Structure formats: C-alpha cells, structure tokens
Amino acid sequence: MTPHSLRIGIAGITGRMGQGLVCSAREAGFIVTGGTCRQSGTKITGADPLMNNLRLVRNLSDLLADVDVIIDFTNVSTVVSHAETLAEAGVPWVLGTTGLTADDQRAVNAAADHIAVVQAANFSAGVTLVLRLAREMGAVLSGDRYDAEIVEMHHRQKVDAPSGTALAIGEAVAEGRGTSLAAVRVPAREGQCGVRQAGTIGFAALRGGQIVGEHKLIFTSATEQIELGHRAFDRRVFADGAVQAAKWVVFQAPGLYSMENVLGLA
User: Fold this and answer.
1) Would you call 82 exposed, middle or buried from its count of C-beta atoms within 10 A (0-12, 13-18, 19+)?
2) pLDDT per residue over 210-261, tens digit each?
3) For tag attachment on the chain, is the N or C end more exposed, with fewer CB atoms within 10 Å?
4) Three-state DSSP class for 142?
5) What pTM, to 2 d.p., does this model score?
6) Is 215 tagged catalytic?
7) 43 a catalytic residue
8) Which residue in the list 82, 154, 215, 247 is annotated as catalytic?
C-alpha cells in the first residue's frame, strides 16, 4: 500500500468533525470510502462534490471490508463496541473521542493488543507540543511553590467539561510532578470551598458562542506567573492532524500510540 492509496473510513461522517475529516483526507489525496451515521443512505451535502456519493452505514462492521484505517470522533458510548469490532477485524484505529470511563479505556487498551491505535484528546501539532511542555514545566515548577490552574473555553454546543484537552494538560502536569491527576485534581470551585491546597491542579471551563477551543495553563508562585496557551481558530486543525495520524498508524505494529509518536517526539 502506498500512502496515496490509503482507504479511510470515518465514524460519525455526517457530523461537523466528520465532514471536516472528509475534506482533509481528500485534499491529502487519500480515498474516503465512507463512514458511519445514524441513518444509512444519508447524503453529505457541501460545496465540494467529492463529499457526495460516499458509502454510509449504521454499523461500523459493515464498512471494514473496504478500509485500511478508521478515524473515530464519535460519542463515548461507542468506544467499547468499536474497540471490539476493530480488534476482531484487525483494522487500525485513530481515536479522538474524549470523556472515556476507566472501563472504556480498558477496552481501548485491550484493542491495542491486536491493532495499532493512535489515541489523543487533541490532534493538533500545537497542542501536542503544549502537552510535552506542560509535563516538563510540571517537573520543574513544584507543587509546593507553584499553583497550577487550567482554563478552557469552547463553543456553546460542547456537552462535556472540562474538555478532554484540558484534562490531558492536567495529566501531563501531574505526570511531570510524579503523581496522578486523580490524586490532585480540583473541579470547578463554588461557594465555601476553602483555601487552595498546595500541589492541587484546578480547572475552570467556559462556554460561549462558536469558539473552537482555547486552553491556558497557568503556574503562579508568590513571586511570578508563567502561562502556556493554545488557541484553535479552525476545527480543521484537528482533522488534518487525525488524517496525518491515519497515514502513520497503518504502518505500525499493534500498540497504543499518541500524537507524540506520530510527530516523532516519543
């Protein structure tokens, strides 16, 4: 298989992210064979005629005979079934769904024993670098001296909070500090919440308008403040990164990979 003969299937192809993935894959010269949607036979409309006449199915298994890789940004409720289906079929998986439970993640890990999986909360190169820097900053800026806070803002339609990217940033800081996010995470504060405890990582989630995604990591000590931030202007940045991951993952051995692997940083 040459890179430009890559056949991509898209889970949730009729959604905003799915349509963006179609455009990114087409422009990269890849073949989009079709995708899953809630109702088979739904037509994708758009200015690009290449968006039309794609094969649309309700069940992921009906698509797998015609694809080399699946890109998946669907709802968390599909993760376990998709993991099992793709592992059984031997089809690599690019997974961008966030909000996974511990059971969901175990299913992804189990699938990675049989297929190559690229899993990321955010597929932009910029956020991948932010996560790397957050880990390094967490290691240097100790929790007993520097308070870590993460602020994120997204469009009004986003249903989960904090965002998967915000949590990934928190996990990176915690990892740098030699602990887990579960042990130090503080959710949104309200009311008589008491004084801030040293070593904790706080989160604030804002929603409004059509903001694609903004994230800021703030370290504050008694004498200085350091900020690390990322702002996405177009959802296309996530689609382009996912397509890059799809091109990469089809040549990998079974395992669980990140965008750091895709970009050659790990």
Assistant:
1) buried
2) 999 999 999 999 999 999 999 999 989 999 999 999 999 999 999 999 999 9
3) N
4) coil
5) 0.85
6) no
7) no
8) 154
